[in-house]
Write a sequence for this structure.
């Protein structure tokens, strides 16, 4: 069966994880918890990791246990000078624009952050939509419900027609069980959750040349 709908994670997938952006976001998560919840740095770090592990995102844990202001939190943790971390990659842009399938950003972040990242990377016109944490009512990957909601929002009803590209094995695993074709970005190691593994997103043509039917230019 051909792949008709392609889902791409955002952070550490569209850009190289070595740039330091996601680490900077994590630092701001901890700082937010210290400032707003009055936690010591060690406790903030422990809870951040615990919530991420248990709920898919730190935000989900903060919502459930601390009733944080979601808008304030998202604005705070993403308030970073993105051009200092990420830059456009013309080769990546050519690859994405050459794909004829429908393409969606599928991220546990919010639309505002995703839009800013896409603008800095000069990829804002490469996708048919952004499925963010608000769109799926703050359900997060790897919760299986998040993938079902993403399918519904994209108008796709057959997981076997879909590709998910993500930097996280634990995010790929539920999608693979549902029937998605999965690609792990940032590692070339093997794992049952990933049908393919590539070190950078722009290597997708080497992993799945049939996506272009031999027409990649």
């Amino acid at each position: 069966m051909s792949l008709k709908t392609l889902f791409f994670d955002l952070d550490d997938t569209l850009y190289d994880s070595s740039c330091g952006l996601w680490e900077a976001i994590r630092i701001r998560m901890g700082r937010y918890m210290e400032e707003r919840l009055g936690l010591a740095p060690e406790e903030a770090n422990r809870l951040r990791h615990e919530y991420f592990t248990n709920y898919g995102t730190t935000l989900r844990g903060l919502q459930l246990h601390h009733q944080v202001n979601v808008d304030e939190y998202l604005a705070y943790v993403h308030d970073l000078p993105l051009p200092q971390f990420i830059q456009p990659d013309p080769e990546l842009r050519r690859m994405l624009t050459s794909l004829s399938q429908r393409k969606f950003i599928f991220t546990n972040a919010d639309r505002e952050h995703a839009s800013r990242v896409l603008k800095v990377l000069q990829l804002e016109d490469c996708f048919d939509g952004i499925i963010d944490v608000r769109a799926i009512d703050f359900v997060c990957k790897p919760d299986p419900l998040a993938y079902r909601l993403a399918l519904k929002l994209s108008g796709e009803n057959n997981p076997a027609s879909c590709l998910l590209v993500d930097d996280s094995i634990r995010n790929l695993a539920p999608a693979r069980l549902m029937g998605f074709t999965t690609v792990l970005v940032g590692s070339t190691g093997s794992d049952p959750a990933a049908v393919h593994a590539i070190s950078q997103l722009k290597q997708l043509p080497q992993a799945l040349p049939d996506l272009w039917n031999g027409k990649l230019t």
Observations:
- Residues 182 and 195 are 5 Å apart (CA to CA).
